[in-house]
Design a protein that fits this description.
By secondary structure, the protein is an alpha+beta fold. The chain has 3 helices and 6 strands; from the N terminus they run βββααβαββ. A hairpin with a 6-residue loop joins β2 and β3.
C-alpha cells in the first residue's frame, strides 16, 4: 500500500505556501468548512479573488462568523515518489468525498478512484477525529 502523509500546520504569517492543501476551519469548533489545493498559485492567491466570494458569503451566513482559522497541509512522500498536480488533486478529492466539508460543492458525491490502495494520513494540526483515508 502506498502511503502519503499530509502534515498540517496553522497558517500564521507565511502565506506563500504552494504545492499543498489548505483548509478553512470554524474559529471556535475547528470544524473543517472547506478543503482546497494550492499548486500553481500560493495559498494567498487562492484565498483571494472573486472565485471565493460565494464561499465566504455562505460561511458568514451559515456559521455567523467572518473569521476563519486556516491550516496548510504539506506532503511527506515515500522515497522515490514525486509530487504532481494530479496527486495533489486526487488527495484533495479523496478528503472532500470522505469528509464532505460544507463549503466544498465539487467532488462531494463521486470521484474517479485513480489511486486504489493509496493511504493518506493526516497529522499535525489536523482537527478531525478521522485521520486515515484509503482510496478504495
Amino acid at each position: 500500500m502506498n502511503s502519503i502523509c499530509v502534515e498540517w500546520k496553522y497558517l500564521t504569517s507565511k502565506w506563500d505556501y504552494s504545492h499543498c492543501l489548505y483548509a478553512y476551519l470554524h474559529p471556535k469548533t475547528f470544524q473543517i468548512l472547506y478543503i482546497g489545493k494550492a499548486y500553481r498559485h500560493s495559498v494567498r492567491k487562492r484565498m483571494k479573488g472573486n472565485h471565493k466570494e460565494e464561499l465566504y458569503k455562505y460561511i458568514i451566513n451559515s456559521y455567523n462568523t467572518s473569521k476563519l482559522k486556516v491550516i496548510v497541509g504539506e506532503f511527506i512522500l515515500e522515497d522515490g515518489r514525486r509530487l504532481s498536480e494530479e496527486l495533489v488533486t486526487d488527495i484533495e478529492s479523496l478528503l472532500i468525498i470522505r469528509l464532505k466539508p460544507p463549503g466544498n460543492i465539487q467532488n462531494r458525491k463521486s470521484r474517479n478512484y485513480i489511486r486504489p490502495g493509496t493511504c493518506v494520513i493526516c497529522e499535525g494540526a489536523w482537527p478531525h477525529k478521522r485521520s486515515r483515508f484509503i482510496d478504495k
